[in-house]
Amino acid sequence: MKKSLTILLFALVAGVSSCDYISDPYENTGPDNNGSLCPDKTFPTNSKTHRVVLIEDYTGHKCTACPQAAITAEKLKETFKDSLVVVAVHSGFFADTKDSKYPEEFRTDAGNTYSTKFGFGSWPNGLVNRIDYPKNQHIKSFGSWGAEVNKLLRTAQEADLQIISDYSTSDSNACISVQTKFLSVSVPAANYKMCLLLVQDSIVAPQLDGGVYKPDYLHRHMLKDNINGTWGEPVLSGTVILEPIVKKYRYKVKSNYSGIACKPKNCYLVAFLYEETSLRILQAAEVKLMK
After folding, report:
1. Helix (H) or strand (E) holding 37
2. For 8-57, what is each residue's pLDDT tens digit?
């Protein structure tokens, strides 16, 4: 009898360990591991019927040409609308705070890690869905961003990504639900991860622009925090499934990040789904932190 029970237990454990995804997609994940404190949400069916591309604009407040890249990104947002998400990543020499005229610390640990990982040595440049990595062709000049986005938008959508945010002004906590849904079993089997970011818009601070010091420059789409870690969290390993995969977070929004005041009304949540080995982004999404 004991031998039979042992065999049965082994079979059950083996069955669980062989799964490529979590059968109950609502996980207690997040910085405080308390996503379970947030209510479940109902997501609409495939809210975006098109691919959404992510541009990462690597920049710095002492980079005199970087405002031109920011202007390019804004024009592309006007053109591609909700098919494009922009995140400004302050990193490198041009983002340091050694000059008393530029005291604001806009760099983040994750942004510094990305800058090193992707080999940034000159600014302004950026990444478009992190394509062409690691072929040494992944760093794109801002003049090429439009053509790269247009090319990607002509390819079939592979996954749907949605974010729902409930922000409480009383305690600065946000309940965030992110749903990933692959749209075709033809998407290659691989390890896929989802990264969730806090981005703040419209920060007024000094910037060198065309050789001119501008004390009241408007910084846009600035990366402030990586909510679920620098490289995000796994959502699926192995063969693609078509069932939705949901992760929940309860995130405390700080009053300031590195001494820069955080204004929740100007904040956005950005999520992107990517393949772990190539780092290629399949889909991005963006919503306002608070309604």
Report:
1. none
2. 333 433 433 333 443 333 344 444 546 778 999 999 887 778 999 999 99
Burial of 96 (0-12, 13-18, 19+ CB in 10 A): middle
Cβ atoms of 203 and 225 within 8 Å: the answer is: no
Give the span between the Cα atoms of 94 and 1, in whole angstroms. Answer: 71
What span, in angstroms and rounded, lies between the C-alpha atoms of 48 and 160? Answer: 7
CA–CA distance, 213 with 64 (Å, rounded to integer): 9
Does this model's pTM top 0.70? My answer is yes
Residue 266 to residue 260: CA distance in whole angstroms: 13
Q: What is the pLDDT of residues 200-245, one digit of tens each?
A: 999 999 999 999 999 999 999 999 999 999 999 999 999 999 999 9
Cα–Cα distance between 250 and 231 in angstroms, integer?
18
Burial class, 100, CB count within 10 angstroms (exposed 0-12 / middle 13-18 / buried 19+)? exposed
Q: Helix 145-153 to helix 66-80 angle, to the nearest 10 degrees?
A: 30
